[in-house]
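input
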Amino acid sequence: MTTLQAYALRTEYRENPLGIDISAPRLSWRLKSTVSGAAAAAYRVDVSSEGSADQSAIGSAAWSTGWVDAGTAVGVTYDGPLNSRTRYTWSLTLRDTDQTVIEAGTAWFETGLLERDDFAGGWVAADTTYDIPEREFDPPVDDDIPTSMRHVPPAAYLRRAFTARGPIASARLYATAHGIYTAHLNGDRLGSAELAPGWTDYTERLQYQTYDVTDQVKEGENAIGIVLADGWWAGYVGFDARRQGNHYGVTSEAWAQLEITYADGSTDRIVTDDSWQTANGRIFYTDLLMGEYVDARRDLGAWNTPEYDASGWAPVATRTDDFSTFLAQVDAPIEVIDELPAISVVIDAHGRALYDFGQNLVGRVRVDFGPLAADRSIILKHGEVLENDELYTANLRTAQQRDVYVSAGADSNVFEPTFTLHGFRYLEIEGLDEPVPLERVTAVVLSSATPPAGTITTSSADVNQLISNIAWGQRGNFVGLPTDCPQRDERLGWMADAQVFLPTAALNADVASFFTRWLADVRGAQTAEGSFPDVAPVVSQFFADGAPAWADAGVIIPWHLYRVYGDLRLLETSYESMTRWVDFIEKHNPNLIWTRRVGNHYGDWLQIDALTPRPLMATAYFAHSAELVAKSAEALGKTADAAHYGELAARIKQAFVDTFTGQDGRLEGDTQTDYLLALAFDLVSGEHRENAAKHLAEAIDAHDGLLTTGFVGVSLLCPVLSEIGRDDLAFALLETDRYPSWLYSVRQGATTIWERWDGWTEHAGFQAVEMNSFNHYSLGSVGEWLYRYVAGIEQAATSVAYERLHIAPRVGGSLTSAAASYESVRGLIRSAWSLEGDAFTLDVEVPPGVTATVVVPGGDTVEVGSGQHHFTSTLALANA
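output
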């Protein structure tokens, strides 16, 4: 009897996705087995349609691969017909090496609206020309509304009543917004998505969401509703004081299309049009950065139910659209991923209650105030850290993270904002006579729902806290796109931050669809000349020309995703933009030293006590991008391009050596990042490489064994040291808690990665308020080294999608154990070692169909197949 099993059946990286519009979706699976050497010899995928949701297409067998030799396959691309609004079920059958046939599992995907003619209706919004008392304008008075929020509109409540004329067979709602929205039907809020539709470059791409509302639509009277806010569309985004809001439009608007199929096969379609109505409700104002003001006195009651009397509501404003920017949701939405109770509360001298959640996080709060007198105004402020036992908010710049709740005198008052997002560990509540009990104060954690992939733990409590800080930094800054910080007036998709952290991020979580969607905005922001920007989406001309290491993300990220997930489609989609970027640099720098068209040129951002020459860093990245384009061309079968860009990379490397290497082999600047770039990007060879390795160690010794690297160098530091045989230095840098170091912030109580090594120091206090985030993942890129080198989970140099592993854990410092697991696209990989005295043990798990070279510290190098393997050795002086 076979033990080979398939699991994690996915369509386009997602489990049973509802409403996709990809013409050739990719179907994938992972394998597991308890038997060593297990593998799939062949597979067969059979796809059948269940008929379209509106029954215009009849269910039938749609496509089959037939039996296919499995080889190294991790999935297959569907090559059959697709109809709109249709659910397709696919089944996977495997044949193992003993020729046993295994019915391995089934999954499904449902198409959304595939043709432009499938879309109907138009945009609806609050009609600002319609006369209602709330729009009467009086002279301003001193009140609790900040100046920045005085002209921010209230959330718009939109609704329409309709009649379902018979028993319901199925119903789907397709919806999106210019802004952010929640959808409602017969009193229920629909779906789990938060801040939908998320942030894309709305001028080019707008994601719509699909909801299965079969159970919500009832025969007879119904009501559909939408609550609409500005979000990224018209709200505050970024730090450009001349353009902090209204980046895409001035007024938020919603689109919805409800399609009902009755039991008799007939259909109805309810769309957003002039039959909808609008009113203002309890959300007096709301903004992602600034906060939300909820006035319970303005509550509309059961506004989203069919029984509600909406006779006093106003008509909506309408606008048509050609739907050319619409596309189905690509990745998992932003969701509530956790809830944390407050762990302590103190009352300050001003009577304000200060709550601690014990963890810096991103999201919002839910507070059950209990009974409150009418007109009681309560102010809630959020911050990451304390100063002199009070909430520290100076680093927010113009962002406020300030919510307000005004009671109507009810016995129950539960406050939880909907359309704002805060970065915080601490909550300050002002306006109450007594503090709310801890059990009624909850932090609600929001993040893009990227599936967890990896875990790692060590024998060191401090290192484990660092690992936790890295993971929480990723959760807090992967909210719709990879942002730089979740609290101040910025929250942009900085590209260098993303590329240096991606190797760590992809080990912590399955980020394939998350980055696939974001890379569309990266490509879309590329200029006609070929320059990538510093951020995507672009919201300011400040980012027009991309800087070295920042704009290079347009090349580095597609290549890395190909290596991790085997995603040849994404590489091919990105390839033209990758070549245009390298061609752009070469055109403006024919001598191959990158000094022209360098954009803002941030250098090795936030390095400490060092200054890496900017031309050196830029040229290193020029060579690296050219080489990755050459490798991408080879993977795509573009032989001539591979030769061209490979030769270009070789010439850039030679220009690098000729320009920046002194007679003693030192690089100009003599910084740690100098040598890290030269070694990591293979810019030097032979004697030059030996010199670079020696000078790197000397550069660390010259700073008393401490690092000096900024965003660019930090991700390379420990991996390069391990590659040149200096694990001792890598472990010493990991474990020191002297400033600057990773553990320095841990010892100061950090629960996320800081933006700066010196965000707060004992000798200087807080860094500049103009830029000092305490939740910023870039310096957490050391997580990659912990997985790949300390735990030893790594793929071979020429491997793609973990087809072949190279398990070679490093033992050093004070660590006596490390254990990691990683859900690769092929299956679970696990490596766990421990050291007791000089007795070393290593346990490795390899997924079916994968082979591994296992380098046992103090022992042999062994070639193994799939399964679980146990190794022992004697490792003398392992901790020396």
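quick obs: The chain is about 20% helix and 30% strand.
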